[in-house]
Amino acid sequence: MTSRDAAKKRSLAYAHMRNCNLCPRMCGVNRYETTGMCLIGDKVKVNVIAPHFGEEPCIQGHNGSGAVFMSGCNLRCVFCQNYDISHRRNGMDLTPEELAEWYVKLQEVGRVHNINIVTPEHVVPQVALSILHARDLGLRLPIVYNTSSFDSLASLDLMDGLVDIYLADFKVWQAETSRRLLKADDYAATARESVRAMQAQVGDLCFTADGIAKKGLLVRHLAMPGREAEGAAIMRFLASNVSTDCFVNIMEQYRPDAHVGKKKRGRGGEGVRYDDLNRPVTDAEVSSIRKAAADAGLWRFNESPQHDGFVI
Ligand code: SF4
């Protein structure tokens, strides 16, 4: 990126900070003075910065992924698997410049394979400024944008040229599910548009010679209890509208968390909340999504290879 392009990105990021419509919530607030729905102002709130070994093998590699967990979120998933970080907003406030110094520390001290910004959708201008500053400080690692896909095209445009790998969730398919479980009107409509824009920017996922992700799109879907039909619809969308070579991780580690399974309060308070989600997923549910993905023509999955050779 030329210094002229970098200056344009900086100026655009500052403009967005003063009138934030950078995610589908479209709050229109000046984040130097107040906060919108995400409740995060001009500084990012960061919960954990550390080498992380809970990602896909191609992302975490041998030394870990340099994870930066952002506090807060622009979604309100009732089953949030990261409730303490995303809903409670615990953490330390950092300026983009301080954040950039942490990226360099992860590179120099942690020897990680990438900088993995987890839940960045509501802090995109700050993240853009931090990456630009970190490049000036000598950051050479790929940047991973680890998102729920509840992004706007404007924010993805701001990240264009700054992100190497989009690690994108695709959570649910139906608008009704989105309203009930994510507290957003039509998450899937936004995610469809976002994932296509990410693919247009970085293409299919590609790797270094030793199997570490270098550039491209990786889509994750967390299988949910009783929602395998939505998972199957997402797989068909990826195959027909994104790429049959799309790298996909169908995840089976769902557990009841956040508001799921908590006692109902107030009048009519018998039983637990979101009872239909109050169990792990079954093998049959996960298998049916995997089958739908293969039937649709997808073939690059996050699975162990079937050979005895070296595997990271
Ligand atoms: S990033 Fe935050 S302030 Fe900006 S539009 Fe989204 S929720 Fe509102």
From TrEMBL:
Q: How many cofactors are bound and how?
A: Binds 1 [4Fe-4S] cluster. The cluster is coordinated with 3 cysteines and an exchangeable S-adenosyl-L-methionine.
Query: What's the short name of a Pfam family annotated to this entry?
Result: Radical_SAM
What cofactor does this protein call for? [4Fe-4S] cluster
Report whether Iron shows up as a keyword of the record: yes
Classification via SUPFAM superfamilies: Radical SAM enzymes
Q: Name one GO molecular function term.
A: iron-sulfur cluster binding
The protein in question is named Pyruvate formate lyase activating enzyme
Say which species the protein is native to: Purpureocillium lavendulum
